[in-house]
Amino acid sequence: MGVGRSFLRVSSLALLPALLASCGNKELDTAVDAFVVVGTSPDPGAEDATAATQPELRVNAEADAAACTTSSLSFHAISDDGAVLFEVDYTISIEEGGSKIRFLHDGGLAEGYRYAVYVDAQAETACADTDGRALVPYGLEFFVP
To answer: The pTM is what?
Structure first.
């Protein structure tokens, strides 16, 4: 049963960027009535990320640097069933006029782990855009062999 949940979670995460891409993830799409992730690096489910990977979420509106912090965004190493193994020591950087949220860490990521960066829907203060719209919950998983 745990494998089914993990597969469903990973499959859903993998499909979301494809659905959003049809709305146009190459440029900021401010016509969408929500603050959403429109692209990522690495790609969702990547199995060949490097230890130097600095994950990023590309968003459709200007992220508010005061709201998008380590309190509202998370970066963890996870097990195959999604359980948190440890938190990565990281900071958040808002770049490219607010359209890119980067998860910066010193040194390299430990090899042989699956990592997840995600918008924490349970955070006391939500990551929001400069119009005050909360970022729609989103998760990105990748593996560093």
So the answer is: 0.78
